[in-house]
Amino acid sequence: MADITITITISEVFKLIARRTSITTETDPFYKANTTEEKQYSQLHGESDRITLDLVNEAAKEVLKCFVSRQGDITELAVPFVNDGTIITYTFAQGTPALRQSEAIVEKLTQNTRDAIVYFVMAALYKTDGNINKMQVMEAKSIELVNALTGDLYRLHD
Fold first, then answer.
1. 96 φ/ψ angles, rounded to the nearest 5 degrees
2. Which stretches of the chain are assigned E, i.e. beta strand?
3. What CA–CA distance (Å, rounded) separates 74 from 92?
4. What is the pTM of this model?
5. In terms of pLDDT, which residue wins out, 108 or 76?
6. pLDDT for 31-43, tens place per residue?
7. Which of 41, 122, 128, 132 has its CB surrounded by the most CB atoms within 10 Å?
8. Helix axis angle, 10-27 relative to 50-67, nearest 10°?
């Protein structure tokens, strides 16, 4: 068995969140009557923004739940979870997937992990805003990605 590490760059997560929240405040009917200043409060830009970083940290812990059951077999030197403010890493043990599937599965795991973190953050933002419809959509997307992560981890390990 080999260890696999999924690495997510927090600056990339911040950029995705910034773009998506900016678009949402301009296009979602919930924000239509808001002033520009009010819309800006609902946009997370991340750059030295403690609120965005706090939400990303919480989202990273939510996604960690997918990996925990696969982290018991990692080598002694590997660290199962790191969030140092610039990167988030999840390390877990790989089983014996079918030939040449490992790389594709790891790539998909990386993309889905990043996107799950983004959707968890956005769901928290919209909950805070009171935008329940958008919150429910983001929660549903994050749950869908968590389920995909779980399935891919199973395929990679067993």
1. -125, 80
2. 2-9, 81-83, 87-94
3. 6
4. 0.91
5. 108
6. 999 999 999 888 9
7. 122
8. 110
